[in-house]
Structures are given as C-alpha cells and as structure tokens.
Amino acid sequence: MTALISLYDRLFGTLEARIAPILMPTLARLVFAGTLLLYYWNSGLTKIGVGLTGIFQPNFNAYAQILPRMSEAVSYDASQLGGFWRIVVLFATWGEFILPLLVVVGLLTRLGALGMIGFVVAQSWVDIFGHGVSAEDRGSWFDAASDGLILDQRAFWVFLLLYLVVRGGGPLSVDALLRSRLQPQTSFA
After folding, report:
1. What is the pTM of this model?
2. Looking at residue 185, what is its pLDDT?
C-alpha cells in the first residue's frame, strides 16, 4: 500500500508542481475566451452608437440594458438621466470590451479578472432587479437543476475568474512576458 501511495504522490506531485502552473492559468483564459469573450463583445456592440465616435456615445440599448428601470422612468430619454449615469453607462460599455480582452491576453490579468467578477455581479443584479429575471430562471443552489442562468451558470464564471485573480495569467501571458523583460538579466561571465 505504501508503494501505491508513493506512486500516486509522485505522479500527482509532478502534475501539481510542474504542469499545473503552466496549464491551469492558460486553460482558464482559453475557457474564458471560448465561452465568454464573444458573449461580452457582442453585448458591448449592441450598446455603442453609430460611426467612429459611437464608442463615446452609447445608444438607446445601452441605457435600456444597463439602467432598465431608470430608462423606463424617463420614457427612454437618456438625456434626462444626467452626466453621472452617462458615465456609468459609458464605462460599463467599455468594460464589456476591455476587461475580457485583458483576461484573454493575460495583461493585468488579476485586475481584469477582478473587474470581470464585479461586472458579473453587477450584471446579475441588473438582470434580477432591473429586468425582473424570474426565480425559476435565476436558479437555486443545492437543487437538482444545474441550468439556472444566474446562480448556477454565473457561479462557474466567477469561479473561473477568481482562479485567475488568485493565480494570475500564468507563464503564457503578456504579464509573464512583461515580467521577464523587466527582471534584470543575470550574467554568468
């Protein structure tokens, strides 16, 4: 039995020490890219205005999606919401492009992932209290259904992002490239 435990420890010890630090952060970023990058970018595209300056002029959809009840209260006339809410909508729209890009390329990975967690929480709040997602669609933990749009699905999103906050982007990231360029080179001359 001792030999079996020793073999197990050697195999999985190598996996944990040598393979996991390279594989896991890279795989986490790949899974994020494959499942959420286009989701957020497409959502962001529905919010930008027309033309080259559209990124600075959120359209009707941006206000209706981000501030649904406030938009409804002013009959969807965003000009009545004021400058503060325009900035909130602008930053939220930009966040749908910038934060996922940071995570995928591994640039400021921890901050990008932390920002995405905040974004997912805010998005979930708006979905529940702004758009009125039903209790059935929200889901519930510790039940037989695993397909709740908010509690089930987004828990996996947050877990993936939390892993990146804790571990960083890994050795195959822009963070690692920048770190290697900033470290003083040692000479063996």
Report:
1. 0.87
2. 64
